[in-house]
């Protein structure tokens, strides 16, 4: 039996390049990409995607939808790294640790939508708490996250590494219109009743994310405290290979969070910080926006799908 063909459509961007780097030396698959002269040839791209076993789409949203619409071979399976299908019916959300049954659903799916980088942290923190009833349905969730500039794709890399890099800002908050495309994705997959306030930012470092969610204990379910929140997360991720909930004593010893701490890995660390007297809890997620937030997650999903190929 020949090795399955994995086609990367769009391997020139930051996510596609990293996926290619993670897969290029593997012998259990046949990796395929288009030559530069063929990338804008719609006919050639349609031929390629219909000839593969699994296609990984690293394309802008519109191009990803176009690529999927070109599939006529029912045997072709897809991992879409764009945001085009993350809230669409019929697509399986590619966050294996999100629910006990999620990895199995991904393994059997024909259409998998890779999570966004920020939603990986937000959903990872909030969904277990929402499903356990620890966060009331009407709680006004606010999320702040800082990503490396590679989160902007090639434009971000050019701004910070190109000829004008000396003029690149050290820090910039964006999404000020409060209409960021990740908010509906977070709301749906974190099981939130209301749209969260999401405030993203870029820092002058290449990759990595720190995401935080503040909680006021007086607005949570009666009797809930930091230890309750931590125990819920610890139970949910017990035994997870790529998601670790820091023990409370380990979190208490931290004085800062380094967004680059897990760069180059597919891991995510979740933390719970609490101040009993002030009645406040801070949730945190640290991970690589190009790892667990993008290419690492895609390869994790690919491996699950290959196991059932």
Automatic annotation (TrEMBL):
Belongs to the NAGSA dehydrogenase family. Type 2 subfamily. It catalyses: N-acetyl-L-glutamate 5-semialdehyde + phosphate + NADP(+) = N-acetyl-L-glutamyl 5-phosphate + NADPH + H(+). CDD domains: AGPR_2_C, AGPR_2_N. One of its GO terms (cellular component) is cytoplasm. The active site is at residue 117. Pathway: Amino-acid biosynthesis; L-arginine biosynthesis; N(2)-acetyl-L-ornithine from L-glutamate: step 3/4. Its main location: cytoplasm. Catalyzes the NADPH-dependent reduction of N-acetyl-5-glutamyl phosphate to yield N-acetyl-L-glutamate 5-semialdehyde. The keyword Kinase does not apply. It comes from Cupriavidus neocaledonicus. It holds the Pfam family Semialdhyde_dh. Keywords: Amino-acid biosynthesis, Arginine biosynthesis, Cytoplasm, NADP, Oxidoreductase, Plasmid. SUPFAM superfamilies: Glyceraldehyde-3-phosphate dehydrogenase-like, C-terminal domain, NAD(P)-binding Rossmann-fold domains. SMART domains: Semialdhyde_dh. Its EC number is 1.2.1.38. GO terms for molecular function: N-acetyl-gamma-glutamyl-phosphate reductase activity; NAD binding. One of its GO terms (biological process) is L-arginine biosynthetic process. This is N-acetyl-gamma-glutamyl-phosphate reductase. The keyword Cytoplasm applies. Residues 5-106 form the Semialdehyde dehydrogenase NAD-binding domain. It is found in: Cytoplasm.
């Amino acid at each position: 039996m020949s090795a399955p063909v994995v086609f990367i459509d769009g391997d020139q961007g930051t996510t596609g390049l990293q996926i290619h780097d993670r897969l290029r030396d593997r012998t259990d698959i046949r990796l395929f990409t288009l030559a530069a002269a063929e990338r804008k040839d719609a006919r050639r791209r349609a031929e390629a995607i219909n000839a593969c076993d699994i296609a990984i789409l690293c394309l802008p949203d519109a191009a990803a939808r176009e690529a999927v619409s070109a599939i006529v071979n029912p045997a072709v399976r897809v991992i879409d790294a764009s945001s085009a299908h993350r809230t669409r019916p019929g697509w399986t959300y590619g966050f294996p640790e999100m629910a006990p049954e999620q990895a199995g659903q991904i393994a059997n799916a024909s259409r998998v939508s890779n999570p966004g980088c920020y939603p990986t942290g937000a959903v990872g923190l909030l969904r277990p708490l929402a499903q356990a009833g620890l966060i009331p349905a009407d709680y006004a969730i606010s999320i702040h996250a800082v990503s490396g500039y590679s989160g902007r794709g090639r434009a971000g890399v050019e701004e910070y590494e190109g000829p004008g890099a000396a003029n690149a800002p050290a820090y910039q908050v964006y999404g000020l219109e409060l209409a960021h495309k990740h908010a509906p994705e977070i709301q749906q997959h974190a099981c939130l009743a209301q749209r969260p306030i999401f405030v993203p930012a870029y820092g002058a470092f290449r990759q990595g994310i720190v995401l935080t969610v503040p909680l006021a204990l007086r607005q949570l379910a009666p009797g809930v405290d930091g230890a309750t929140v931590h125990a819920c997360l610890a139970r949910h991720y017990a035994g997870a290979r790529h998601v670790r909930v820091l023990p409370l004593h380990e979190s208490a010893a931290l004085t800062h969070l380094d967004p680059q701490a897990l760069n180059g890995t597919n891991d995510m660390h979740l933390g719970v910080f609490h101040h009993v007297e002030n009645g406040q809890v801070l949730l945190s997620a640290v991970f690589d926006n190009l790892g667990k937030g993008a290419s690492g997650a895609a390869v994790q999903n690919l491996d699950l799908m290959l196991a059932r190929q």
